[in-house]
Specification:
Layout (H helix, E strand, L loop, with lengths): L1 H27 L3 E8 L2 E8 L28 E4 L3 E3 L2 E3 L2 E8 L12 E10 L11 E25 L4 E19 L2
């Protein structure tokens, strides 16, 4: 009888430990988020994991400047366009891409619009794994600016503009990156 109770105790303890481990892993996983917008006559979407800053300084420490970084947590951050785009001076074919960035420090406040570069958005043909320069489809300068209020969770949005224009916007902590685009006719 005593052995049975000891086995039940250890079995219960193992189950409780597994539950705590599972809950802890789930808490560390970035919740999924997405943005889908109709720009002109086409649908453009971005899907990503949205980690929280949790009081940490993100850009320049957690996310180093001037090094490739895949924004988001968990699975690859995907960007999909059903039509060809012009991002800056770069032609982007219709399709699905993994997003990477090379973040740079923002120099001015967002109410001033921010300056283009030196941050870079990279559209990659790869769908998972570490950054591979051989899979690059395009590199586009990003406008960087400093936000007045901090953004706790990483946010990536497709923002329709007028007509066939829009902006891909990445915000986290006190930094905003904007990548304007237009549909190719």
């Amino acid at each position: 009888m005593r052995r049975k109770l000891v086995r039940q105790f250890w079995g219960s303890l193992a189950v409780a430990g597994a539950l705590v481990t599972t809950q802890s892993a789930m808490a560390q996983t970035a919740p999924p988020d997405s943005s889908v917008a109709m720009v002109g006559t086409t649908l453009i979407s971005v899907h990503y994991g949205a980690p929280s800053a949790d009081g940490r300084q993100v850009f320049g420490t957690l996310v180093p400047y001037n090094q490739p970084w895949r924004p988001g947590g968990g699975d690859a951050t995907t960007f999909r366009t059903l039509r060809a785009l012009k991002m800056g001076d770069v032609d982007v074919a219709r399709g699905t891409y993994t997003l990477f960035t090379i973040p740079a420090a923002a120099s001015g406040a967002c109410n001033g619009g921010g300056a283009a570069g030196p941050g870079v958005l990279i559209l990659s043909r790869q769908t998972s794994g570490a950054f591979d320069p051989a899979q690059e489809a395009a590199r586009v300068p990003m406008r960087a600016c400093q936000l007045a209020d901090a953004v706790e969770r990483l946010t990536i949005r497709v923002i329709p503009g007028s007509g066939s224009t829009g902006t891909l916007r990445i915000e986290w902590e006190r930094t905003r990156y904007d990548i304007p685009f237009s549909l190719v006719r």
